[in-house]
Each structure stands twice: as C-alpha cells, then as structure tokens.
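Sequence design from tokenized structure. All designs in this work follow the same two-part layout: the structure record, then the generated sequence. An example of the structure record is given first.
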C-alpha cells in the first residue's frame, strides 16, 4: 500500500488521534509531519486507558507500527522526553520511535518570546499556546534555526545558539525587559537531551522511501487542521506550519505521487480554540450544551473550546483543498437529544450569498451563516455499529453532510472509544 494522509477538516481537535489509532494496527509506519507540542491527540484504548499525546504520533499505541517524527515538526526535547518516559512507565514500547535529524528544535528563547509577545499584543493576540512553536518556525524560515542533528555536534550547537541569542537576548532584555538567556546553561541542558535522543535520530526520508518501495503502508498524521494552515487557513489566526495534504509531502519527505488516499476528520459540529473568525459560533445554551456534552476542552492547554454548528462551507473547502477521498465524522452522539440540528450551508455577506469561502479576511469575519435545519433524534446511538442501527434522522444528517461536501462519509464516530464507530465504507482494503 502507498502513503495515506490523515488530517483535520476544521480548526483542529476533530478526533484525528482516535482515527490514527484505529488504523494503527493495519499500517506499518505512522508519521507526524507538522506542528509541535501545541497539538494534542486524545486516544482511548479498548481497555479504557486514556492517553494524551502531544509530540508522539498516535501510532505509538499500535503494537507494531514504526512511529516517526518528520522534518516538518518542531521539537521541544524536554517535552518529548517526558512523553517518552510517561509512555514507557505505562508499558508502551517507544523503541520504535525515529526522529528526523532535520526537524527543528524549540529553544528557551522561542518559548520566552512566544509568551512575552502574546502578552504584549493584548486584545490583538492570536491565541498561541505559548510553547514557542511560532518563533521556532520563524527562525527556521529565517535560516537561523537549530536542528536535532545539531545536538550531535556540540561545537555547531554552541555556535548556532550564540548567533541566535545575539539578537534574541537584545529583544528579551532591551525591548521586553526580560532576563537574557545564558548560552552555556542552554548548551549544557540540550547536550543532556542529546544523549537520550541520540538513538532515535535518523534519516527518516530514506526509511520511508524504502518502506514504500517494499509496498508497506505509511500513514501521514497531521496536527492541527486545514483552517489553521499557514497558507490556506484563517490567517493570521493560524498555526505556523502546513497541516494540509500538501504539507505532508514537505513535512515527511514523501513524494506526492505516493499518496493515494486522503482521509479528513470532522466533528458533527464545529469547534476552535484561540482567536479568529468563526461564523457558526454559538454564545447561547446550545453552545454550552455542545461544550458540556462533548467535553470540549483542549488536550494540550485545557482551554474551553469555542463551539458552533456544523459548517458545510468550511468542510467543503477542506475536502476540495486536500483532495479528500474519505470523510470521518466524529462525535455524532453529542447531537443526540436536540430537537433541531442546524447545518450552515452558506454565508450572507453584505446582502450577498456565498456558497464558498470568501476571499478576504474581512468578509469571512463578517459572514453570517445561512442555516438549514434538520430534525434531531433522541435515541442512544453509542451502541450502533452499522448504519442501519442509527436513527433515521441521524442517517439523514450524515447523508446531508455528504451532499454538501461532495465527499463520502466512510466512518461515523458515536462515542470516544476506539470501537465506538459506524463503518459505512472501509478506510483500508
């Protein structure tokens, strides 16, 4: 089997970790290709154990798949080692992990600048997690980044850090009145990380090419989601990488011709964390209901997620942009008990209807959703495993999503557990 991309179709937190884990036993490699520890996947195993993963690919919970952190990820080594240790303590085999030597490191000055700049922006803040992801990607683009391979050469590490801190310490101390970062302390700290990470650092591109040549299945796992993509999302309220399907090629070194399937995950409603436009956001009891029943709190930050009705304009945009072949709709069970379930089918902007995403940030910010109301259902659907076991109105809701997105819905999530799914079409042969 060739490469498969798995990504989010909204603003993240759609349940990609669950789907990755669902596929993990049937793939040979699971590769994380973007983002940093600003992302989080929650996975619940069949025995009821709950895992919150941040940097580790969700395939870590598969018994056999190789797990890879690609070159497109930014890595905080302290966080990664804590995650490795936490998984090992719970009996999870982490020896299968490999990390690209070209992945960039999150350094202390990245975290410091992320936090202080966000505070400085005040009401104009973007809503970052403060974990240094944006500044790390900024240095990567500015060709001032420090990579994992630099941990293997103390001289190079010190030289690159001295160069970076020549500028960053000026900003921290003279502009933001913060303490400067000591070069030697940082070098010593990161060389300690180097000793532990050395066995995991590898040339992952060749590893994945060889796997594809052998006919093995490579699952490329995106963090965040389409609407947080640096180029195609709701800029500037986005992440600092490309979690879309095109970013999988760049972030893992996989040729585009190797990808034959793109699976997108969407909630049966919509959520987002942080600032930025959100046309279907609810500020009433319906929003509180979705947040409470759906347990909508960030895996990484614990922040309350903003909640709203399903936005078919966003979902259709994501499906077309990524070339989605299969849509997975999660958390359908959260909508149980609602008399009416609205779907946003278009926007009204300055008296004009838009069925596609508007071109400008201003228009999207002022978009008023046009809703189509479907009848709800009251039956408990968490035990449903076939489409026929779903209530008629729930089936109609899924069918309408298919029509509006132009993409088949292959799996419907009816609960948080790995097995709590309705399979409509197989994701793998």
């Amino acid at each position: 089997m060739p490469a498969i991309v798995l990504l989010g179709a909204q603003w993240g937190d759609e349940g990609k970790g669950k789907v990755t884990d669902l596929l993990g036993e049937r793939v040979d490699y699971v590769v994380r290709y973007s983002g940093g520890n600003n992302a989080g996947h929650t996975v619940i195993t069949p025995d009821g154990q709950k895992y919150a993963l941040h940097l580790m690919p969700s395939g870590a919970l598969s018994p056999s798949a190789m797990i890879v952190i690609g070159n497109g990820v930014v890595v905080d080594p302290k966080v990664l080692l804590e995650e490795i240790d936490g998984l090992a303590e719970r009996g999870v085999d982490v020896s299968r992990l490999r990390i690209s030597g070209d992945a960039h490191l999150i350094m202390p000055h990245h975290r410091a600048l992320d936090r202080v700049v966000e505070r400085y922006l005040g009401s104009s803040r973007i809503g970052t997690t403060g974990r240094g992801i944006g500044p790390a990607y900024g240095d990567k683009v500015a060709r001032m980044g420090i990579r994992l391979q630099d941990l293997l050469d103390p001289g190079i590490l010190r030289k690159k850090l001295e160069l970076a801190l020549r500028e960053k310490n000026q900003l921290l101390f003279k502009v933001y009145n913060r303490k400067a970062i000591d070069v030697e302390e940082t070098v010593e700290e990161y060389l300690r990380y180097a000793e532990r990470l050395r066995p995991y650092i590898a040339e992952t591109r060749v590893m994945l090419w060889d796997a594809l040549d052998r006919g093995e299945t490579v699952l490329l796992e995106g963090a965040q989601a389409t609407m947080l993509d640096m180029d195609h999302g709701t800029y500037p309220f986005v992440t600092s990488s490309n979690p879309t399907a095109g970013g999988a090629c760049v972030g893992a070194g996989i040729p585009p011709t190797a990808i034959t399937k793109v699976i997108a995950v969407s909630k049966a409603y919509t959520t987002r964390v942080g600032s930025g436009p959100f046309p279907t956001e609810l500020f009433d009891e319906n929003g509180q209901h979705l947040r409470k029943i759906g347990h909508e709190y960030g895996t990484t930050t614990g922040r309350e997620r903003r909640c709203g009705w399903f936005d078919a304009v966003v979902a259709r945009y994501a499906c077309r942009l990524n070339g989605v072949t299969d849509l997975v709709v999660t958390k359908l069970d959260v909508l149980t008990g609602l008399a009416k379930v609205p779907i946003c089918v278009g926007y009204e902007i300055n008296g004009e209807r838009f069925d596609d995403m508007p071109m400008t940030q201003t228009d999207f910010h002022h978009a008023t959703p046009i809703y189509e109301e479907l009848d709800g259902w009251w039956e408990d659907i968490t035990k449903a495993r076939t489409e026929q076991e779903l209530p008629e109105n729930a089936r109609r809701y899924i069918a309408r999503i298919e029509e509006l997105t132009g993409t088949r819905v292959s799996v419907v999530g009816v609960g948080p557990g790995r097995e709590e799914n309705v399979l409509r079409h197989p994701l793998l042969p």
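The chain has a mean pLDDT of 92. We note this feature because it recurs in several other targets discussed in the main text.
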